[in-house]
Amino acid sequence: MVEKNVAKNALGPKPRLKFHPPSNLVIDPRYQRSITQGTGKRLIKRIVSDFYWPFFGVIVATDNGDGTYCVIDGQHRAEAARQHPDVHSVPVMVIDEMTLAEQARAFVEINQNRVRLNALQIHRAAVRAGDPSAVEIDKIATSCGVEIPANNISSAEIKPGQTLSIKSLINIYETFGPDRLKATLQTIMNAYGDTTGDLRAQIFQAVAIALGDRPDASEDISGALATSDAVSWIERARSEGKISGISTASCLAQLLVRPVKSAQKAAG
After folding, report:
1. Average per-residue pLDDT in the chain?
2. Where are the domains of the chain?
3. Tell me: domain 16-112, CATH 3.90.1530.10, correct?
4. How much is the pLDDT for 262?
5. Which of 11, 95, 188, 233 is deepest in the core (most CB within 10 A)?
């Protein structure tokens, strides 16, 4: 049993590493999260389908003293291992029997004392790992003069051509393909290549939508975009979008192609 009153600087009981069958790992629902639906269920499915030992890590559990081990950290991986037909044992860092309160405290400490990766860091790592999509997105951005920083930076530090909106670039790439992403970035850079803070998510999304409506109007869309800064465009689109019942990006796309449509109508 782990001592309850341990000095603040004590190391605590030293765990032992052993391999155990996934069937011997149990979950205590009194402090653990539900993994039977939603995000947890999808994560387990992905771990099973993409199972790779170097990515699995080590399960942290406490010895129940009856041949079972209560998982403190790693319940999604433990369940994925249980479902995988070729995984018969997993590495477990076993801590001597703990009370429920001690288990819950360990669960909180382990999950709180983590620095979560942001989207920029994940993208940079994916590029270094050779992920095809991440590499292509990075190449497209670079070819258009767009820089994706490795970490978040403040608005005061951001430079022309830099964007923190990597999720929007990924979304455009996955939704519309690499050609649309490149056209979107080229169009925006023609308008905002020398400014700072204008390469924003809603701008990327709106221009991608606008180019889908008017693929040959990149120059006109750039010209329209350059008449105002990104924040002003977004505020206007958000306000008008609420009235029309459409998203900010969709409304902004309509605003950007409106002059093109008007000119074509007048010419026709």
Report:
1. 91
2. 16-112, 119-267
3. yes
4. 65
5. 188
* pLDDT of residue 239 exceeding 60: yes
Amino acid identity of residue 189, one-letter, is: M
Comparing CA positions, the residue from 11, 40, 48, 63 lying closest to residue 71 is: 63
Write the burial class of residue 209 (CB in 10 Å: 0-12 exposed, 13-18 middle, 19+ buried): buried
Instruction: Give every strand in the sheet of 69-73, ordered side by side.
Output: 16-20, 90-95, 59-63, 69-73, 25-26
Please check the confidence at residue 4 and state whether its pLDDT lies above 50: no
